[in-house]
Amino acid sequence: MRRVAQIPLKGRNRLDVNTTSTRIVIGICTRGRDALLRRLIDSILLQQVPRDHDVSLLIVDNNDHPQVQSALHDLGGPFPIEVVHEGRVGLVHARNRVLDEAASRGADWFIGVDDDEWVAEDWLAQFITGMKALGRPILLGPCQFVHDESLSPYVPPMQFSVRKHGRRPSVYAAGNFALRRDMFDPAHGPGLRFDPAFNESGGEDSEFLLRAELQYGLVPASWPDAVVFEDWVGVRATLRHRMRREWRVRCTWYRIAWLHCRMGLRRSYLRMIRQALGQLIRNLVYGAIGLVVGVAMLLVRRPIARKRIGRALLRLARAYGIIAFFLGVPVRTYTRR
């Protein structure tokens, strides 16, 4: 049964709503991360809302039983907050539910952000500027990874390259993105949804955005000014975590390519297999060479040697991901806890 709870406002910075305004739903899918969720919401509630925009915050509580209400006490802000419980565990179930809810609310735009991030002070205003400036149906903003002293000496700091305004993004991910109504609302367009095949493995966001481009010609556009931040500390700062991430991402990427070949969105299986084998050989060769060179450098240039060893091991992890794809090894990142 559908369950919706609305958090009452305390009136702080609330602006009058114009009935002809652009309606924006900000969606968050969350599971078992109440402290991080509260940090994200606090950063969103600091956003300035233009008077010609009607903005609401929608949280999908993706737990077996509702639990996020306790993280939302004592909240007030410029727009209402609603919580919807989705008892089917998995990112695809949660992401599709939040799109269904946004469509049912008549949203002109949906903005999605991950629960382990927090947003810059002008994040919402920048997305609104991008919506008006580009006229494109999909905007992707950058995520800046925050590292500290817990970062393993073998792990190179990770940052994705950021493309200029309107360019095709370097990474297709749904951690910080905006969709126009004709993307997600069946009454106004294809009503795209995330593929259940990636419910436990992750990669559902890359597949979704690639399918939008390949099937409908809806190419995502970079909007580098709408920035979010994400901690890569603690467990995430370890070499083991990065290696596990690398093999899972590579394996899932080729699962996506195989699916799109089967759907007729890519030209041929053979071309995809050739590409995979080429990457496998390159990662194995350069990974092995880098590992040998790094070990040899340990006695004379230890800091540089450690980073070289780390990069080599990440290459070998990518190679394993390609092998795992060919062997049909299941990838399970999101499972019941």
Q: What features would you highlight for this structure?
A:
11 strands; eight-stranded mixed sheet; alpha/beta; three-stranded mixed sheet; single chain; 8 helices; 337 residues
Q: Summarize this, please?
A:
By secondary structure, the chain is an alpha/beta fold.
Structural account:
By secondary structure, the chain is of the alpha/beta class. Helix content is 39%, strand content 16%. The protein contains eight helices and eleven strands. The strands form two sheets. Strands 1-4-3-2-5-9-7-10 form an eight-stranded mixed β-sheet, sandwiched between helices. Helix 1 links the parallel strand 2 (22-30) and strand 3 (53-61). The radius of gyration is 21 Å and the shape is globular. The two termini are 23 Å apart. The model is unreliable at 6-19 (pLDDT under 50).
Global Rg: 21 Å
Any idea what the shape is?
A: globular
How far is the N terminus from the C terminus?
Answer: 23 Å
How many separate helices?
Answer: 8
Find the structural class using helix and strand composition.
alpha/beta
Which regions contain 5 or more consecutive residues with pLDDT less than 50?
Answer: 6-19
Roughly how much helix do the residues carry, as a percent range? 25-40%
Strand content: 15-25%
What's the structural blueprint in terms of helices and strands?
Layout: E1 4-7, E2 22-30, H1 34-44, E3 53-61, E4 81-85, H2 91-104, E5 109-113, E6 117-119, H3 123-134, E7 138-140, E8 143-146, E9 176-180, H4 181-184, H5 204-216, E10 221-222, E11 228-231, H6 239-262, H7 269-297, H8 302-327
Helix pairs in contact: 6-8, 7-8
